Amino acid sequence: MNAEFIIAYRRRLSDRSKEFFETMQNFLFFSLRSFGAMIWMKRYWSDITTQMYAAGTSSIVIVLVSSISIGCLLTMEVGNQLESFGAKTLTGRATALSVIREMAPMVTGLMLAARVGASFASELGAMKISEQIDALRAFGTDPIAKLVMPRLVATLIMFLPLTAVSCAVGLIGGSFVAQGYHNIDPGFYWNSVLAPLEFHDFLVGFVKPPVFAVAITLVSCFNGFSASGGTVGVGQSTVKGIVVSSGLVLLLNFYISKLVLENL
């Protein structure tokens, strides 16, 4: 009985390993084809602008709400800790470094992974289930160039300004908390925010959005293209895309910060 169980377990493990590596191979080819399709950007520019509105303009509200919440919370907590050391006037400095380097890119990436990634996966999954993607192939249109590449270019363009907006709103929200909660003069706050900032602080924060854009878009679109099993399959592929892209945002956020800060 134990021997049969071990054999069955090994067989399942082998099947899952083969499935994983096959998926990684398909994802690699899918990604290479998506980047290669950028030579057709001019042809599909109208699709790109449509996706820019969907991925960028329509996401401003959720970015503003999450960013101002993070900025206010950081300022309140950091100020409380610094007050015990008699360094409350440095609250702006700590908040600025946290927001620009880490929190604004990461929170924006997570919000966009949930909103934009879910939208991409569900739209493409529905098209796959209803055989619209097969219809594009039948008419001689590359579905990756038509459906994936515009989304990839749109997120590459829009995620950076959304992160900049997130940084600005987070710091502005922090200034109101610093003045109203910690009784810090706005001049002291903004001086401690702006004075210590250096080039590598902005580099750490603003190199992340393009990387997040690529990860979120390719993972979400790949899961949409892989959907099967009707509407249930669309839901499963959408959830899988959100989970994987959100996890990648967290991992990439750490490793990008580590690499940039260690090499500057």
Helix tally equals: 10
The fraction of residues assigned to DSSP E strands is under 5%
Main beta sheet: strand number and arrangement? none
Helix and strand string, N-terminal first? Answer: HHHHHHHHHH
Q: How many separate structural domains?
A: 1
Structural class: mainly alpha
Distance between the termini: 59 Å
The unreliable regions are none
Work out the helicity level.
over 70%
Q: What best-fitting shape do the alpha-carbon axes yield? A: globular
What value does the average pLDDT take? 88
Mind sketching the topology for me?
Blueprint: H1 2-36, H2 45-55, H3 60-83, H4 91-129, H5 132-138, H6 143-180, H7 186-194, H8 199-206, H9 208-225, H10 230-262
Helix pairs in contact: 1-6, 2-6, 3-4, 3-6, 4-6, 4-7, 4-8, 4-9, 4-10, 6-7, 6-9, 8-10, 9-10
How would you describe what is shown here?
This protein has 264 residues and is mostly helical. It has one domain. It is 84% helix and 0% strand. The chain has ten helices and no strands. The longest helix has 39 residues, at 91-129. It is globular and about 65 Å long. It starts with a helix and ends with a helix. The mean pLDDT is 88.
